[in-house]
Amino acid sequence: MEGLRLQPFIDLETGEQTGQEALSVLSAGIKPEHFFPTFAPDVCLLQFFDQMDIVSQMKLTTPSFLNLPVRVLAEPECLRRLTQVRVCYRRNIVIEVQDPAEIVIAEERMADAVMRGVSTLRCYGWQVWLDDLTYSVWRELSRAGMQFDGVKIDRTELAYPQSLEPLVKQARKLVVNQENNILIEGIETEDDLARARKSGASWGQGFLWPEKKITFR
Fold first, then answer.
1. How do residues 59-79 score in pLDDT, each as one tens digit?
2. Rounded CA Rg of the chain
3. Which of these, 77, 87, 86, 7, lies nearest to 46 by C-alpha position?
């Protein structure tokens, strides 16, 4: 990891920044989609803790979202280590659960373990958001009764404006307490922004807004 990218989350009504996602900067030529899936759950967790330490030292005023693959939440030892993180470290950190499609295709035992993991983390005071929601994933997670503190809707859904608003409404059913915690990913143009605002979502993320880069020396 050569640094971090901090992609801002923007309130679609006010234009104010409401948070940021911390993403690792890898060496040139290394693609994240090929690199990170090779990590074992405990290695993913170490990466998460490294990011958490860096972000915590920055003393940002808005919540920082850090990614964890679903397979990490299905591992009892990884879950135990997350529950032991001090409140002072996780006060402004949000867990973003990646690859929700893996929950859908997983064996029932793993899906149940992930659901228990999310519930356990929330009981310990962690905020847990779901990443990359699509219509097909929503149907399965809804049937399973899974709930989160917020939901990020996959960037591919922006290409279907007629179904985006219904998906936002359905996504709210997966959110506990704060039904406005719905974010649209992949906003790159003013047209994308207009569609996101019309959908009824509260937050937006994408290259339309400049990200901050931190390089490790």
1. 899 999 999 999 899 999 999
2. 17
3. 77
Please say whether the structural domain 3-215 has been given the CATH code 3.10.20.310.
no
- Are 104 and 137 contacting, i.e. CB atoms less than 8 angstroms apart? yes
d(CA 69, CA 76): 14
CB of 22 closer than 8 Å to CB of 55: yes
Which residue type, as a one-letter code, is found at position 211? E
Q: Residues with Cβ < 8 Å from 21, sequence gap 6 or more?
A: 6, 7, 9, 64, 65, 66, 67, 96, 205
14 SS3 class: coil
Map residue 86 onto helix, strand or coil.
coil
Q: In this predicted model, what pLDDT tens digit does every residue of 140-174 receive, in sequence order?
A: 888 778 899 999 999 999 999 899 999 999 999 99
SS3 130: strand
SS3 call for 79: helix
